[in-house]
Each structure stands twice: as structure tokens, then as C-alpha cells.
């Protein structure tokens, strides 16, 4: 099977000091599968994602090969890369408030993106966007499109980003901590939408998170990063059920401690009830 | 110890001459006993942080009262040293110009505790929150999120308060660090016997340390329930909240 | 102490600081340093070239240009500094009150500022000079009256941004008095903003006061002032352009020194920028961005 994305020996370092942020990371992503990158903050998860999009700050130097559909996008000129972003590679960010232009209504921003990639007319864009927004459970899409980012909640903005991804139909979605800043209910809803998005488009996804509970819901494969190094990789089940690396064990055990306590609470009661 | 009675709060919406007001808190009443850990759970925008500010006496309620040990909490003398807080945003919770030492000295300075005495206490305080004395000379930007939150906790408990308010104190930390901080809080509670008011949107974390949780929505209390009986929530909203929780 | 040390590492800042210090001491000690009496007219020496006795030559009335330059520091730099401090002080007090307490205080102070700022600065200054009469002190009063509103407004914005920070919230919650919070938490963080604001506006103030003197509204002849020296040299601009050079260079050097210093001060006052500067030798704006990136 051909891999959709192959990353070979990706090394990211600070240009001025030569401090290495990500050490020779290599991984592959199959068509239609979901790879989760987990790790604590500062482990280089987000930098790796941005390296794939080639959106890192200019003082970070990245070397290595990033093969997207067999083409090394790390060597593409910026202009070509810009065409790929959005259309082929789509990113869903953690902070919806920062992802949209605060000075214009959401619709303007989305229109700009879509007309840049597809050259559709305003009417077409509005129709497609409305359809997509309805499918991610946003009521009154035309009203939402005429609102400013600060008038919407984090969960709504996140779902608008997903709706945009639906319209763009990319080959790869990179979701960088999409649910971290949300509260319980929106977290659940956004995650549901992401899962549905995968089913609907059959798109491959890189899902970055530090919350193993969320990762467990969406991921097929897991990559554990620590201090810029990939310490463990494998299928989700095997990693979470039988972690080998002490760091993975530590991550799993902390999450389990929280969850088990909660589950015990709930179960005890169900026993008491019955 | 802490008694919140029929508190209401509204903010003015729009400009200087606008009459429109947005109700943030609606008839909120609850109490918190000595040594109790009370969780306040709610979505963002539900008014739980406003409630936190009212409890800390940083704002005045439009109606109703917040009493702490019988005194009005808006009076500085009532809360001085007895009521303390840890906030969410660890990037701004310590003055960037202050070293850890100076930040920890602040509450002591107010209470007029001598420098020498404070210096002695500081090492044991840092030790209690799991840091070494070598952190004293560091600036906040040299610390990680978890470390800063530990310093904030140390600063908050330095005056041995009766009550500690944690406003989303662990929400912006990694899950693994969250657990460390929660365990630390449980340990400290055993040492100092203070009560916590734990404001969060994370039910699992609240369930981990709280004795009682208060489920908050749109400025109203939906339900108050013992953590051990969390399963038996009555309101629809609380049920939905529990159902939608993503567990591991 | 740390700030001075950091400033010292930046060579340009150190040089600027030195220039400003030398200028100020020269201005204060003018009678001791100046080689000649600045107002002594000697018609024999009209337009004389530089000599050992008169290092920079003599002007159209045969007065020593160097001595006039040194005495000119007093109105051009020292009195401007005084006016600046007074207006920054007024602006800071009102700005801190407005930004920290918000609400009615804020509304009142800001409407006052709006009123002041709605007049164009030069016109306002001209009006005040028109009422009070020509003279340096009246120009300075006019400056203070115009500038405080501008400072108050900018300082308020800077204060507001810090008044919502976690450490201020904590201090409020732990029962520290408002005055102490402002003094301990808000003044230090806004100080860098204030320092940068005032040091960058000092350049324009020096230029403005020279401008007013150039128009003949400031200090009166025969007293020396850089702007007035330029004005006097203007008559012979085509025949003896070198007479303009001395005051012009003095203005340029002092104004740029203040500007360089204000840039360096911004870096030196912020502990975050200093460490990142040690780490990488990028430009200062870039570092700031980087820090934000790390923080976010």
C-alpha cells in the first residue's frame, strides 16, 4: 500500500543556535488512516505538524524529506506550497479565536479561502458552506457566517473549521489540539464531528493531543513524542493496553488514575442502585 | 465558613449610554464548610469565573451577599491572608519582573512577616509543592507550566489560608501534569486542612478531589451533589454532561 | 542595577547614554565649561573661522558658537526634560487611575483627554503663547498642557492591559491595597512602556522647542538656544552655510541618542527579551514574536 504521507528524518532546529527541537523523526501515514501524536507540551508535536504544513517560523530550520503523495513538499517553492495548503493539506487549530480574522465576519474569511483555491462564485461558496455547516450541526449557517469570531463560542469556531475542511475536501487533515480548549460538551461534539468527517471524506488525519482519552476515540495509530524524539509507535490498542516505553507507561497511568477514579465513582453507584 | 447568599450580577452591554444589561449570575446560593472541597463545574461563559471573582471580593455583587467567616468578603481585612487563589493562565500568574522568591514574599510582606522568618519558611514551602530551593532565583519565563502552577500554589498557601479558590487552575496543563498537581493539592489539604473551591469544566478532575460538586449553567445552579453520589444526578443538563464525557 | 548592566552590553545604547549624560552635565555646568561668554558681542570676529580661542568659530555678531551651543543645552534639552517629566507625571497619575479603577474615573479622565487632544498641538501652543506672552517658560507650560493628555491616554492603555493579569488578580484577592498593587505590580511593568514613550517623545519635543524658537516664539535674544541659532544662521544660509552645521548637528545627535536609548531601554527593561537576546542574536521585534510564540 502506498503511503499518503511519508516523513523521513525530519529534523527541526533553531537556525541561530543550532538547538535541535525535533530529532530525526520518521513516520508514515496510510491513505484514510488516523495517526495521533501524543506527548506533553514542549515535546515537539505542534512543531512537527507545522513542519509538514511548512508553516514554522523562519528561524526554525527543517531538514529531511516529507513525501506527500510521493512528492517531496519540503523542497517545493513557497508558491507551490501555498496551493497545497488548504486544498490538499488542511489544518484545524487549537484556538478558534486566533484562527479567524477578528476584524471581519467569518463569512468573508471563508469566502477568501475558498475562492483562492477553487475560484467559485460567491453564491456557490455560500451554498456549499451552508450545507457543510448544517452537516456539522451548526444551526442558522447564514447567521453564523455574518458574525465576528468573538461573538461565537470556541466549540462553534472549531466546528466552522471542520465545515471548511468538509468543503475543501483535503487529502490530509492536521488537527492540532482541536479539543483541548473546549469544555466537556463541545469537546464531545467537536470530536464526533471529526470522526464523522473522516467517515464522510475518507480523509487521512494527523491528530495531535495530550489527552489520551480523546486520542483513543479517533486514532488508529499512535506516535508518542518526548523532548523532540519519537519514543514509541504502534497501533492504538497495543500502545495503550501494553505500553513498552516508560514514558508511555507514565502517560497512560496518569490518565488512567483520573479515569479510574471517576469510573469507580460511577460504577459503585450503579451497584448501589441495583 | 463561606456563605454565598442569593447573589446576582449583571454586566453592562455595549457603550457608555447603553441600558442593555447581561445577567451573568442569577440567584446563586451555596455554602462551603471548613475543610471541604467544593467543585464548581460549568461551561465557558456560564459565569463560573465571575462567581470566583465575587467570592474573592474583587467585584461587588448587584444583589445578595458573600460572607466569609461572617464578614463581608469585599472588605479587605476579612479576606486578608485567609482567602487565597490560583488562576488558570499560568503565563501571567506571576509578575514577569519577579523572581520566584519575590513572588512568594508578596503575601508575607502584606502581613508584615519579617524577612528572615519568611526566608526560613520559603524552603520548606517550596519543598512542600515539590520544588527545590534552587528555584528561588528563577524568573517565571524560565519555568514550565506545571512548575509555575506549583509556585502559584505555594504562594497561595503561604499565609495558611482557610480557603483556597482554584479558578481553572489545572485546565491549561497537560493531563499528566494535571494529575501531579491534583495529587499535590490533596497532599496539601491533609497538611493544612483548608477548604478548596475548585472551579473547572473538567468533571473528571473535579471528581478526583472534590467532596461536593455544584453544576453551574447560564448563571444558575443546576444541581449540587455529593461527589460519591454523582451517578444519581437529577437534572437533564448534568446527565448530559456526564454522558458526553470522554473517558479513557 | 540589572538594567544598567544590560544597557551597558548594548554598545549603541551605551554610547547614546554617554552622549546624553555628557550633554546634560555640560548643560548644568555650562558656565564652567564654556570657553567664552555666549552673549559677548565682538564685531571684529564676525564670521570668523574656527581658531584655538573660538573652537567652532563665531557667528554674525562675533559670538563664540561653541559657548552658545553649550549654553543652548539648558533651554533645548534640560528645560525640555523638566517639562517632559512634569507632563509624564501628570499623565501617569491620571493614566494609572483611569486604567486601574476603570468605570467612572476612567470615563472622566478620558473625556478630559479627548478635549485636550481635539486641539492640534501646535495651534494650542501658539494660542497659549499668544495669551501668556512670548518666552521659554510659556512654551514649556504650553507643552505640559498639551502633552499630559497624550501620555495619560497611552499609559492608561498600557495599564489596562496589565491590570487584568493573573498576578494582579492574585494580589487583589489576597487583600493588598490598590495603591500597593499599582506601585508593586503595575508601575514596574508599565515603566518600560513609559520610558519608551517618554524617551521617544523627547526627541520630538526637542525639535518642537527648537522649532518655536526658530519662529521667534521661544527664548528671546540674546540668549542662546539651538533652534534660534539655526534661525540666526538662516540669513546667511547661502553664503555661510557652515554656521548652521553646529546647532543642526547638536540637535540631530541629541535626538538620535534619545531614540536609540529608548529602543535599547525597551529591551533592557524586559527580563524576557534579555534572556532571549542572549540565546539568539535576532532583532528585538523578532525575539518578541518568538517569546509570544513560546508563551502561546
From TrEMBL, chain A:
InterPro entries in alphabetical order: AAA+_ATPase, ABC_Ni/Peptide_Import, ABC_transporter-like_ATP-bd, ABC_transporter-like_CS, P-loop_NTPase
GO MF entries: ATP binding; ATP hydrolysis activity
Residues annotated as domain ABC transporter: 2-252
GO cellular component: plasma membrane
SMART domains: AAA
Record localization: Cell membrane
Main location: membrane
Membrane topology classification: Peripheral membrane protein
Similarity section: Belongs to the ABC transporter superfamily.
Protein name per its UniProtKB record: Nickel transport system ATP-binding protein
Taxonomic lineage: Bacteria, Bacillati, Bacillota, Bacilli, Bacillales
UniProtKB/TrEMBL annotation, chain B:
Cited InterPro entries: AAA+_ATPase, ABC_transp_ATP-bind, ABC_transporter-like_ATP-bd, ABC_transporter-like_CS, P-loop_NTPase
Keywords: ATP-binding, Nucleotide-binding, Transport
Gene3D superfamilies per record: P-loop containing nucleotide triphosphate hydrolases
GO-annotated biological processes: transmembrane transport
Chain ranges of the ABC transporter domain: 2-243
GO molecular function: ATP binding; ATP hydrolysis activity
Entry keyword Membrane: no
Keyword Transport among UniProt keywords: yes
Pfam families according to UniProt: ABC_tran
PANTHER family per the UniProt record, alphabetical: D,D-DIPEPTIDE TRANSPORT ATP-BINDING PROTEIN DDPF-RELATED, TRANSPORT ATP-BINDING PROTEIN
Annotated family: Belongs to the ABC transporter superfamily.
Protein's UniProt name: Nickel transport system ATP-binding protein
Source organism (scientific name): Evansella caseinilytica
Automatic annotation (TrEMBL), chain C:
GO terms classed as biological process: transmembrane transport
Transmembrane segments: 12-34, 77-101, 122-150, 243-261
Lineage: Bacteria, Bacillati, Bacillota, Bacilli, Bacillales
Segments forming domain ABC transmembrane type-1: 73-262
Keywords from the UniProt entry: Cell membrane, Membrane, Transmembrane, Transmembrane helix, Transport
InterPro entries in alphabetical order: BP-dependent_transpt_permease (IPR050366), MetI-like (IPR000515), MetI-like_sf (IPR035906), OppC_N (IPR025966), Staphylopine_ABC_permease (IPR053474)
KW Signal (keyword) present: no
Keyword Transport among record annotations: yes
Main location: membrane
PANTHER family: D,D-DIPEPTIDE TRANSPORT SYSTEM PERMEASE PROTEIN DDPC-RELATED, OLIGOPEPTIDE TRANSPORT SYSTEM PERMEASE PROTEIN APPC
Name used for this protein in its record: Nickel transport system permease protein
Amino acid at each position: 500500500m502506498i503511503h499518503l504521507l511519508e516523513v523521513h528524518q525530519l529534523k527541526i532546529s533553531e537556525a541561530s543556535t543550532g538547538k535541535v527541537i525535533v530529532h530525526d523523526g520518521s513516520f508514515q501515514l496510510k491513505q484514510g488512516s488516523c495517526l495521533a501524536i501524543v506527548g506533553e507540551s514542549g515535546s515537539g508535536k505542534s512543531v512537527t505538524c507545522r513542519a509538514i504544513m511548512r508553516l514554522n517560523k523562519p528561524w526554525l530550520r527543517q531538514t529531511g524529506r516529507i513525501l506527500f503523495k510521493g512528492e517531496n513538499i519540503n523542497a517545493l517553492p513557497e508558491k507551490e506550497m501555498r496551493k497545497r495548503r488548504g486544498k490538499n493539506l488542511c489544518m484545524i487549530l487549537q484556538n478558534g479565536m486566533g484562527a479567524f480574522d477578528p476584524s471581519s465576519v467569518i463569512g468573508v474569511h471563508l469566502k477568501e479561502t475558498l475562492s483562492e483555491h477553487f475560484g467559485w462564485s460567491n453564491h456557490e461558496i455560500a451554498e456549499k458552506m451552508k450545507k457543510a455547516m448544517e452537516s456539522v450541526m451548526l444551526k442558522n449557517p447564514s447567521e453564523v457566517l455574518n458574525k465576528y469570531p468573538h461573538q461565537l463560542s470556541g466549540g462553534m469556531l472549531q466546528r466552522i473549521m471542520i465545515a471548511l475542511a468538509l468543503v475543501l475536501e483535503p487529502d490530509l487533515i492536521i488537527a492540532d489540539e482541536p479539543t483541548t480548549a473546549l469544555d466537556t460538551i463541545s469537546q464531545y461534539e467537536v470530536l464526533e464531528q471529526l470522526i464523522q468527517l473522516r467517515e464522510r471524506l475518507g480523509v487521512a488525519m494527523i491528530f495531535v493531543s495530550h489527552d489520551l482519552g480523546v486520542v483513543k476515540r479517533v486514532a488508529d495509530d499512535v506516535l508518542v513524542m518526548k523532548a523532540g524524539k519519537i519514543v514509541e509507535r504502534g497501533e492504538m490498542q497495543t500502545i495503550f493496553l501494553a505500553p513498552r516505553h516508560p514514558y508511555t507507561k507514565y502517560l497512560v497511568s496518569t490518565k488512567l488514575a483520573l479515569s479510574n477514579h471517576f469510573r469507580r465513582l460511577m460504577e459503585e453507584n450503579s451497584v448501589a442502585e441495583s | 465558613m463561606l456563605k454565598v447568599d442569593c447573589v446576582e450580577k449583571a454586566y453592562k452591554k455595549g457603550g457608555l449610554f447603553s441600558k442593555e444589561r447581561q445577567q451573568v449570575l442569577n440567584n446563586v446560593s451555596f455554602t462551603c464548610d471548613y475543610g471541604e472541597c467544593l467543585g464548581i463545574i460549568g461551561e465557558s461563559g456560564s459565569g463560573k469565573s465571575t462567581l470566583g471573582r465575587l467570592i474573592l471580593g474583587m467585584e461587588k455583587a448587584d444583589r445578595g451577599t458573600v460572607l466569609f467567616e461572617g464578614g463581608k468578603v469585599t472588605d479587605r481585612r476579612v479576606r486578608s491572608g485567609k482567602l487565597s487563589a490560583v488562576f488558570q493562565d499560568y503565563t501571567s500568574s506571576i509578575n514577569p519582573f519577579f523572581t520566584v522568591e519575590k513572588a512568594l514574599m508578596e503575601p508575607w510582606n502584606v502581613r508584615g512577616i519579617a524577612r528572615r522568618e519568611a526566608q526560613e519558611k520559603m524552603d520548606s514551602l517550596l519543598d512542600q509543592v515539590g520544588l527545590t530551593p534552587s528555584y528561588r532565583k528563577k524568573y517565571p519565563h524560565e519555568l514550565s507550566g506545571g512548575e509555575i502552577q506549583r509556585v502559584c500554589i505555594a504562594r497561595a498557601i503561604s499565609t495558611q489560608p482557610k480557603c483556597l479558590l482554584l479558578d481553572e487552575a489545572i485546565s491549561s496543563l497537560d493531563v499528566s501534569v494535571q494529575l501531579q498537581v491534583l495529587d499535590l493539592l490533596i497532599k496539601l489539604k491533609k497538611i493544612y486542612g483548608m477548604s478548596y473551591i475548585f472551579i473547572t469544566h473538567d468533571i473528571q478532575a473535579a471528581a478526583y478531589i472534590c467532596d461536593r460538586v455544584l453544576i453551574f449553567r447560564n448563571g444558575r445552579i443546576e444541581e449540587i451533589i455529593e461527589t460519591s453520589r454523582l451517578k444519581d444526578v437529577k437534572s437533564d443538563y448534568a446527565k448530559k454532561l456526564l454522558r458526553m464525557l470522554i473517558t479513557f | 542595577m540589572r538594567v544598567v548592566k544590560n544597557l551597558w552590553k548594548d554598545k549603541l545604547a551605551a554610547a547614546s547614554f554617554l552622549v546624553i549624560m555628557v550633554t546634560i552635565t555640560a548643560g548644568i555646568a555650562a558656565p564652567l565649561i564654556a570657553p567664552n561668554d555666549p552673549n559677548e558681542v565682538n564685531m571684529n570676529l564676525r564670521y570668523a573661522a574656527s581658531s584655538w580661542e573660538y573652537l567652532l568659530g563665531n557667528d554674525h555678531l562675533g559670538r563664540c558658537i561653541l559657548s552658545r551651543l553649550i549654553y543652548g543645552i539648558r533651554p533645548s534639552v534640560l528645560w525640555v526634560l523638566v517639562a517632559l517629566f512634569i507632563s509624564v507625571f501628570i499623565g501617569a497619575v491620571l493614566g494609572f487611575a483611569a486604567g486601574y479603577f476603570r468605570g467612572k474615573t476612567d470615563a472622566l479622565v478620558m473625556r478630559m483627554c479627548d478635549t485636550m487632544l481635539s486641539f492640534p498641538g501646535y495651534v494650542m501652543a501658539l494660542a497659549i503663547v499668544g495669551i501668556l506672552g512670548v518666552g521659554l517658560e510659556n512654551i514649556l507650560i504650553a507643552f505640559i498642557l498639551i502633552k499630559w493628555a497624550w501620555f495619560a491616554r497611552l499609559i492608561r492603555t498600557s495599564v489596562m492591559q496589565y491590570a487584568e493579569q493573573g498576578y494582579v488578580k492574585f494580589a487583589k484577592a489576597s487583600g493588598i491595597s490598590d495603591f500597593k498593587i499599582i506601585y508593586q505590580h503595575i508601575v514596574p511593568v508599565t515603566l518600560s512602556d513609559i520610558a519608551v514613550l517618554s524617551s521617544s517623545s523627547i526627541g520630538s519635543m526637542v525639535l518642537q522647542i527648537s522649532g518655536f524658537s526658530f519662529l521667534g516664539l521661544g527664548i528671546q535674544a540674546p540668549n542662546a538656544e539651538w533652534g534660534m541659532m539655526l534661525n540666526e544662521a538662516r540669513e546667511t544660509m547661502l553664503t555661510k552655510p557652515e554656521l548652521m552645521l553646529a546647532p543642526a548637528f547638536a540637535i540631530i545627535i541629541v535626538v538620535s541618542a534619545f531614540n536609540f536609548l529608548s529602543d535599547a531601554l525597551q529591551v533592557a527593561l524586559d527580563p524576557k527579551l534579555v534572556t532571549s537576546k542572549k540565546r539568539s542574536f535576532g532583532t528585538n521585534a523578532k525575539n518578541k514574536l518568538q517569546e509570544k510564540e513560546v508563551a502561546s
